[in-house]
Batch of 2 targets.
Target 1
Amino acid sequence: MAAPVRRIVLAYSGGLDTSVILRWLVERHQAEVVAFCADLGQAEELGGLEEKARRTGATKTIVEDLREEFVRDFVLPMFRAGAIYENQYLLGTSIARPLIARRQIEIARQERADAVAHGATGKGNDQVRFELAYAALAPELTVIAPWREWNMKGRADLIAYAERHRIPITTTAEKPYSSDRNLLHVSYEGGLLEDPWRAPYEDMFQLTVAPERAAERAEEIEVELEAGVPVAVNGERLGPAALLARLNALAGPHGVGRVDVVENRYVGLKSRGVYETPGGTVLRAAFQAVESLTLDREVLHLRDALAPRYAEMVYYGYWFAPERVMLQAAIDEAARGDRDGAAPPLPRQRVRRRAEGAALALRPEARELRRRGRLPPGGCGRVHPPLGAAPPHQGARRAQREMTRRRARARAPKAWAGRFAAPAASVAEAFTTSLPFDRRLYPHDVAGSVAHVRALVRARLLTRREGARLEGGLARVRRELDAGRFRFLPSDEDIHMAIERRLTELVGPVGGKLHTGRSRNDQVALDLRLWLRAECAALDAALARVQRALATLARRHRDALLPGYTHLQRAQPILLAHHLLAYREMLARDRTRLRDCRARADELPLGAGALAGAGFPLDRRFVARQLGFARVTANSVDAVADRDAAAEFLAAAAICAVHLSRLAEEIVLWASEEFGFIELPDAFATGSSMMPQKKNPDVAELVRGKTGRVTGALVALLTTLKGLPLAYNKDLQEDKPPLFDAADTLGQSLDVMAAMLPHLRFRTARMAAAADGLLLATDLADLLVERGVPFRRAHAIVGGLVRHCLATGTSLRELDADLLRRHSPHLTPELVRRLTPARSVARRRVVGGTAPREVARQLARAAREDAS
């Protein structure tokens, strides 16, 4: 079973697909989503992207200008290789994906995300390109491909989803073809264009004009190359991105670079694509002209023979494959002899506007997005096309699997079995196992093992070849766990032993070297700290979402009046916004406690061994850098015995849960008929099985009730720890069930609060009415103080007036002049009539008070903090 993800980095464009995916990820995984958009030359499409992503549900949006890197490090090396797919396609989309994926992985690590997501469909090549890059660069990350998971079948479903969730989109059901633009090209596919007999609409083209409307006169363009790198156009030296943009501007008016092709996709489909690549077409001509003059004949012929294979590697997504890197090195070495050259003149040209002949017709299944049909078997659940011989008979396959399982059980003894003459009793084995709860640590256990392998290689306890074999095996184990294909055995005591056992099955005896210099004691301590770091960050993000919801409510009702309470008795008028912001302050303290906990947990315990330290020269600081720890633990005994970070986490979680419980309690009270201050949204209330009129605040009551589980977890862990001698004891296995349960419970409570709060409807008129009357008594006493009456005397005077009002059923503003004068010569009807709830709150102008000016300042601070 795959572990739940808490933070996802999405490759986001702002288009229909990724906008819907962003909202779907938030709803499906209840996770934080960081929207990452790479600016590869589509700048005119990026306006308002950050606001759109925020409104759609993104926690954070990152837009980075990668145009220089795109052209310099990806486009130009590909052009030096002479790559063109199936003699027509200049690979404008294909070459962009490796850069986006690489930067997405880098951001995922910076943001401490545990998953990445993309918007590629199940029938396309982009799913392969993204996922091969992910596998090459970060095999430990979970990959989410919504098009292979959700039930939406086509663009009409996406449009309907976007309309239901009020996601702004530009795609329409009448014109649903998709486009993808970068500095090298614009591609168009899908929808209407899936019919190879339909000519593309002229108004869809962005970079080029139709050949029949192109410039009448030819234009000569000179491109200067140095060592295989274009450096100038028409004598003007330009950077890579500016140079390609200039070529686009020069060639586009001549109708250069349009192609309309049916290409063979890697996933086994034929697909039509319409492309505009004006600058790239000129650049390719310039490379060919220079290469014809400068490259050795045999080198040129060999390069040209390899160019189709290179183009396939780019098209299929093998940019980071060693064979592509090796081939690139040879091509770049040959290109260093190039000096300069010119592309031929650009006459008026004509381009073919449609695919020709039935021989190039699309497979009927390729039209499923337009027809709302199902994806074909070869393009939905599988990234790679089927290869090799036909599969064996199902019965034979089942028998083989059963035999494999039996053999695995037979050869999976306990890691410590050498000391014992008899195996563990089955009842003892079942009692001591921790797999039911600690399997969620598997991403951290694999990451820690990879870092440990590298430390063993660094200490020359493993050869580089052995280290690479172990890392590859660990990556495969991680993929099996991610996909839910990992088979646990009854002999697996915990997730650590299960991973080591499976690794040894995959890589052979070298797997037995993984545990060199490591004990499960320091291994467990490491995994726990890695989990705590991630969980602190995830809960911090969840708290931020609730804070934003409270601040949004406060802004929406910034002028609404509310009776403030002490002892659950009406006390003084305050602003509703001020009351809501009080909870925001509580949650801010919760966030600092979690951050403090994370900072104190940021120590590497690995290397402490069982308790005395590793017996090999392992570089613990190197391992700390590999795993992102700030420092290493100072004492090996303390490192394996310490659970302070877990206790501190639970203390912070318990306080946070209490804060949520107090907020939930007020929602319950205010939703009652006795208060009547709020109306609960139907989506967050329940009814009675017997009483038809009931509308119960069950969600808020459960948030209040689940607080006991979180505070109980803290008590449970402290009780476990209080009698333990140093160093490690098996009792410490019991730290995880309450810890995980508390984290899950708090996370769920935060998520449901963040979802419910924006939909609360406040009855502001009823609240304002409740804030009037005798709640203004303190203000009357203050007015007397302003007229020189000592406060204690003023308090007594107003107390007498309150007693009279209660006895007669009148309000302070209804008292006549004689009565007021009998209590104090300073009191007049005019003075008392000035008492209103609005004037009362306006008087509270101290820093942090409820005056509108102060509340506005608090809201401004909240906005700054939310934006940071």
Note: The mean pLDDT is 86.
Target 2
Amino acid sequence: MVDKNVNISPLAGKPSGPGLLVNVPKLVTSYYTDVPDPSVAAQRIAFGTSGHRGSSFKKSFNERHILAVTQAICLYRKQQGINGPLFLGMDTHALSQPALASALEVLAANGVEVMLAENDEYTPTPVISHAILTYNRNRKTGLSDGIVITPSHNPPHDGGFKYNPPSGGPANSSITDWIGAQANAFLEAGLQGVQRVLLEKALNASTTHRHDYLNAYIADLGHVIDMDILRGSNMKLGVDPLGGAGVHYWGPIAERYGLNLTIVNKEVDPTFRFMTVDWDGQIRMDPSSAYAMQRLIGMKDHFDLSFACDTDHDRHGIVTKSAGLLAPNHYLSVAVFYLFGHRPQWDLRSAVGKTVVSTQMIDRVTAKLGRKLYEVPVGFKWFVDGLLDGSLGFGGEESAGASFSRLDGSVWTTDKDGIVPCLLAAEITARMDRDPGEIYHDLTRELGGPVYDRKEAPATPEQKKILGKLSASQVKQTDLAGEKIKAVLVLAPGNGAPIGGLKVVAENGWFAARPSGTEEIYKIYAESFQGERHLDQILEEAQMMVNDALKTPSEAGV
């Protein structure tokens, strides 16, 4: 959701023009020729909430970064005794192919068994997680792990690099901190200590293998989604892969399970020229943005239900006839309501996982279901252990990322999966004879109708550090928008982990403030169950608290 107070670009929602398209040859040339300066913070390797991201144009994502971080991963594997195959995949961003080549050169030189996609196919993030977990099932030794090369829904000039340990999900901070420190040491040493062979030798190495990711994942979908009810419904479904890594998955899914599914765009183009422009004038493959989703929204009446995924297919966007594009918070609430009522084999003790900045509607739905709520900091890594051991039946975050258990209650993926929430929306519609938009409307009549917003503002690294260490004692106010403050949180209620900011909660509203883990901005999230005016008041008071926290000692009168 975009803050209604920011300046929306006049290009937002319109087709992208030639002036917006990335120069792919120039971008790739920069990847190979530009040298990052490790003394400049922005040019070092830094793992945010979802891996290391950057652009070769900014010297924040190029060949040296990938060589260094891959060698660091090889050292980590050796230290931890991880000696099974490494599942390696990439999305359709222009920098993903060069980064995969660089990574493979290092992995082969280190003797790592690598699983590459057959026919050099693109590989969605959840498919890598699924492959790791499938391989590791019932194993105690010789465990596998993976690397996903993707900056998710970020603009076409960006690249990204994620490590998934044997748990199958995003690596936790202790792992990424260690890998990042080793990788930056390699950068500082001019890559001394990095082992590497030529790409041709790496591709032909005895340790490099091909893996049928596509069919292994698709064949298993019937164990997480009730495909029989979809097959029998003959609903007209539409999907827009947004030019992403799952572009060649949807056709085989429809064929295997007998779905009446139309792929509205099969094009893969690293400039993503087919996208409509996002709110800030950039091309961004965000399925939760109405500006980026204009094509599919415009086609909503052609289908009973339609959906889209971002570039690495770990996020979902659901378009209904009744309500158009659903806000992620709305659909997550519906998914929780439906899943815990229609998965009889799930453990009655399995909990609902949400991040601290996700809607309080999930809290209310969870209470209605008589389930336990597990609230964690931002980042899907916090759900990994619970999804793995079954103590969580569902984990979701407000940025349209989610995964949930198989029909029998066992683990499906421990990373975000954009594909199964899309198929779940179809299952819900087929079984309930109502689309998720209609079901959400019913929930609001019973539990209240929240309004939600998120503000973003530029922040220097120093300001981000201050915001990340806010304390409850810094909140002097006793009321929030006319209601008594019930809690000021700096630790997540579910697992006691620092939320990297703070959350202030009242009876009918809350806000959370935290620095971004991947961009030079901070974010204020807010929600009210008393309407837009109340929400505006919460946001205004939240902004004042953040401004106070960011004051220098002299500005604060110290």
Note: The mean pLDDT is 95.
